[in-house]
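As noted in the main text, all predictions were made from sequence alone. Below is one such record, for Argininosuccinate synthase.
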Amino acid sequence: MAPADANRRIKKVVLAYSGGLDTSVILRWLQTTYGCEVVTFTADLGQGEELEPARKKAEMFGVKEIFVEDLRETFVKDFVFPMFRANTLYEGQYLLGTSIARPLIAQRQIEIAEQVGADAVAHGATGKGNDQVRFELAYYALKPDIQVIAPWREWDLTSRTRLLAFAEEHQIPVTRDKRGEAPFSVDANLLHSSSEGKILEDPAVGPEEIVFQRTIAPEDAPDVATEITIDFVSGDPVAINGEAMSPATLLTKLNELGKTNGIGRLDLVENRFVGMKSRGIYETPGGTILLTAHRSIESITLDREAMHLKDSLMPKYAEILYNGFWFSPERRMLQALIDASQHSVSGRVRLKLYKGNVICVGRESPNSLYDTRVVTFEDDEGAYNQQDAQGFIKLNALRLRLGGQIGRRGGAL
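Prediction:
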């Protein structure tokens, strides 16, 4: 929808507002272009920044309705943990730290829009990235008739120079480091930090150490391993070293442990949903530890076929989340299957953290399917009849033998 049309139709918009330069420019642009009232929403998802400056900036722009909310516990409990029950990795590596945050922000925006009677929502995602898709798919799923404003697809502020000129024209404060070309952009939350752009755009050139926000270099990590335990109940972590913790507190602790031991760095070239490849530097210290721990407790508590089915569905689940379909029926269907698999996934995992590595050194569970009487190389006292294997092998070999006979005559693959 063009701004000229929206100018007559939009009365109030809820903006996802960080308080940074881009969203501050967007705030003023919405006011001047659409002539509408702007409501700001700033979410604390554990990005590690003080949020009160965002409130003060919004007040400076004359915003009357300002929402600044701590959503860390909701983020981890209702979004991060359900995702980790699936051992989710996009393209085999990415722990989806940015992808999983967008549905929560969008959900809360829509709730606020309904609360204050807004007829539109706005975000600061660019027209080249995945986030515009994630935000807007969530908006439309939750409120089909909502109007969406995506400034980066509408305005003519297509360069840093134009953005700064608009900021100065409208008395928007610009910190000194923002006046030059930023070396790279950063997005962060309690699960991860993501850095991309500028000096990181050439995938042949390794990232400099200044890029890393959440981890020390593995080679600088302690020479002695850190040993910890993580307790699980129905697939979710509930305690570290026997100390019960809330979801956000537990992930914060794992982040600290991961940072100290140089864990969770990833240099990735990924396939964006919008069609291009992009290079990002990700740091997911706590999540990397949690993934190994969760797979370890599943290894003794999940049935073989249940585990293999779940693993076969994981890439599809990851793609659904990456592409922004958190609120889709297919994600809900897969989530129900994944959650059903987790009822027996309880117990304790013992890990060693050492110079970028997460090593499982023990796992135990009251629901363990591991039976030493069956697997032992010593006398199993009749728990397993090895003669049974003969018929099992012959039945499984039948098709191979039949195919082999035909193959000798040149007729089978």
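DSSP finds 13 helices and 14 strands in the chain. The mean pLDDT is 93. These features were considered when defining construct boundaries for the mutagenesis experiments described in Section 2.9.
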